[in-house]
Amino acid sequence: MNVNELTPxxxxxxMQPRQRNSNGLTGQDIISVSQFDRDLLxxxxxxxxxxxxxxxxxxxxxxxxxxxxxxxFYEPSTRTSASFIAAMERLGGSVIPITQGVQFSSxxxxxxxxxxxxxxxxxxDVIVLRHPEMGSAQVAADYAEIPVINAGDGPGEHPTQAxxxxxxxxxxxGMLDGLKVAMVGDLRYGRTVHSLTKxxxxxxxxxxxxxxxxxxxxxxxxxxxxxxxxxxxxxHDVADVIKNADVLYVTxxxxxxxxxxxQYEQVKDQYEITAELMTQAKAKMIVMxxxxxxxxxxxxxxxxxxxxxxxxxxxxMFIRMALLAAVLGKA
Length: 331
Ligand code: ASP
Hints:
alpha/beta; Rossmann fold; 2 domains; 38% helix
C-alpha cells in the first residue's frame, strides 16, 4: 500500500469527526499507535465491547465470511497469533497461519520480505506480520496492496497490544484520565511499553518508569513524554512506585534483543512482584503483563483480584475482532 496515499487519512488533527464516518480504518494498515487519536480509540473500544457481548452471547458471527487473513510470524508468538486467528474465525473468516514454519517457507531459501508479502497478498485480504526488524511492518505495508497489521516489529512497536492494554485499563478501572501508570522491567527493548506510552500521552496520566539503568526508556520516547508535559519519573526500585500506582505494568527482560548475554544475566532477575509486595499496593489497582512472564510476577499473585493479566489476554481477542472488522470494512 502506498504510504503517501494514506497519509491524509491519518492526519486526524485536520479531520472533522464526521469525515471519519464511523471509523477511518477501512482498507488501512495498522503500523503504529500514532494513527489513533482519542475519538478513534473510543470507536475501537466501543466495537470491542460489542465483540465481547457477541462472543459471550453466541460465540461469533459470519461478517467476515469469505475473507482470508495471513498470519506471518517471523518471531515466536502465542497470544498475538492465537488471538488474531481466534478473532478471524469468530467473525467467520479463515486464516493462513505461517506462525511456526517460517523456517520451512521460502523465507529460508532467501526470499525477501517484499516478495513474501507480494505473494501472500494474492491469497488474502489482510496480513498480520511479526518481524524482528524495527520498521519492517512499514516496509511490508509499502509493498502490499491489502492492509498490513503490525504484530510487533522488533523493539519498535506493537500497536494492537497497546490497544488491548489501554482497553484493559479502561474496562478495569473505568477511566484513563487521572491515573498513575507505572511500567516495570525492560523499557529499552520492550515494544509493548513503547506503544502503550505513546497512547497514554493522549490522556492526563502520570508515568513512572522502573528499570535497571541499562534498560531505561529510550530517549526518543522520554522526549515525547516530556514534550507532552506529562508528569514522569524514573527509578530503579518498584518500592518507590507500588503504593501510589493505579496500574503496575510489568514486562519481561527481552533476552532475544541482547547482543551480550552476560549483560542479560546481570539484569534478568531484578524484579519480582510477589503477594507480599502487593500488600503495599492500593486496594483498587491492577497488575498487567503482556506475557509471557519469566519470573517477574510470582504465581502467588495470580489469585489476587488485582491481577489482570489473563483478563488482558482475553481483551486481546475482542480488540483484534474489532480491528479486523473495521479494516475489512465490516464495522
Ligand atoms: N508478547 C509481547 C511481545 O511480543 C511481550 C514479550 O514478548 O515480552 O512483545
